[in-house]
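Many introductory courses stop at the sequence. We go one step further.
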Amino acid sequence: MSLFTSTAAWVTDEHRMFADMAGRFMDDELSPNIETWVENGVVDRDFWRKAGETGLMAGAVPEEYGGVGGGMGFDAITAYEQGARGDAGWGYGIQSIVTHYLTAYGSEDQKKKWLPKLASGELVGALAMTEPSTGSDVQAVRMTAEKDGNSYRLNGSKIFITNGQTADLIIVAAKTDKTAGARGVSLIVVETDGCDGFRRGRNLKKLGMKGNDTAELFFEDVKVPMTNLLGPEEGQGFYQLMKQLPWERLNIAIMALGAIDFAIGETVKYVQERKAFGQRVMDFQNTRFKLAECKTKAEVLRSFINDCIGKLEAGELDAATASMAKYWGSEVQNEIMHECLQLFGGYGFMMEYPIARLYADARVQMIYGGTNEVMKELIARSLDV
């Protein structure tokens, strides 16, 4: 299993070495703990620190802020290697997104303060956009941030927040001007340690991704220094979100590919061992044809994703192409999970087999990061010019 295609121009020897290191770490430290995290509903903080010590979260962080100083391809590798172990619990994808918001828009003081700790795993990040009454429509957020001397006072709530129970550093989308629509949205960084008025709701019970802590967050007169504004001025939040969404959406597609590779591998092993009517399930033509279809879809997706990563590294990944990657990757992921589970027969319905968990985990991929219906609308807009 590999993220790379043989012709991917963005891949270097450093990327291959990083992938080998990441794979070994995942085999030793992630795979044995997946079921425990699923049972507990949260990934151990010790794992975050171990991942930081290994450098898994530092690949694209500039060297002056405790990172390796590479490009986004390193984050893509970490995301893929996680997915390729069948895990959707570790909230690394959000950690990467938070890191790149700070890298792109943070002040020098903010970068020095937070980036090294995000890279080391000392801090866990979260991105709080979604509210109970607003999903993909970010400009409609109701969370407010009102000036109070040298501080903001935050009031409102957020829901479905990945890493919500453990996050130490949360980028919050809030209205600094309630009359300005999209131009009134700003991003403000909240440090949760000792934060008066900040409260976490229960760990939400979900269909899938049970190993990840997902929560509703409440802000009641939460006082935050004005220096925690992300960017040089208020009202830039919607623009900042739109600029960073291509990576978030491509990351979803990369995770999809990793999960697909894992599912196909597990299914091949099962049908080679399982017998029915006196022969291996693998020997039935239907089995072979279904797996051939799944493998073909995986390789087509892999080529597209590698093309997208190359564009991302060159600063050329546009919103429509990223939307295609998210839409197509998550659709193909769900199709393949459906086919693979069917080949497991009754055992596919049992949670003792990873395919059942992978099937449940896949469903949300077509919802978060912008629903696939929103992705289609964004793609269509690129045609209607």
